[in-house]
Amino acid sequence: xxxxxxxxxxxxxxxxxxxxxxxxxxxxxxxxxxxxxxxxxxxxxxxxxxxxxxxxxxxxxxxxxxxxxxxxxxxxxxxxxxxxxxxxxxxxxxxxxxxxxxxxxxxxxxxxxxxxxxxxxxxxxxxxxxxxxxxxxxxxxxxxxx
Length: 146
Fold this sequence. Notes:
Layout: E1 9-13, H1 16-26, E2 30-35, E3 39-43, E4 51-55, E5 73-78, H2 81-93, E6 100-103, E7 107-113, E8 119-125, H3 128-133, E9 142-143
Parallel strand pairs: 1-4, 5-8
Antiparallel strand pairs: 2-3, 3-4, 6-7, 6-9, 7-8
């Protein structure tokens, strides 16, 4: 078997009525379908679905921080610091709290929560020669100001 790429991600959320607008209005996705299992399917551009949200109920507890599972979802938004600055302004204009901004050498990133605390990273890619010449740089993470 050879895996070609990640096809989609399914995230658990408490309330589709609260979460779908975040993914549509803040992240620019388009809702393409819902089903009777309380799921919404969303796309960025031309795919059957990139992210699906499954509703767990408004009384669902937070997952313990040390529990196994998804740590964050990373979304590439471009390749320039200007694009990252624009993203920061966009998030702030929508009242999204920013957890941290990091320089990973191979990327520059902003981390923030969705309405249920699922962490999202938006990033801009550095020159690919950086990580091709020194793959260990992928483990770099230093605070960065935008």
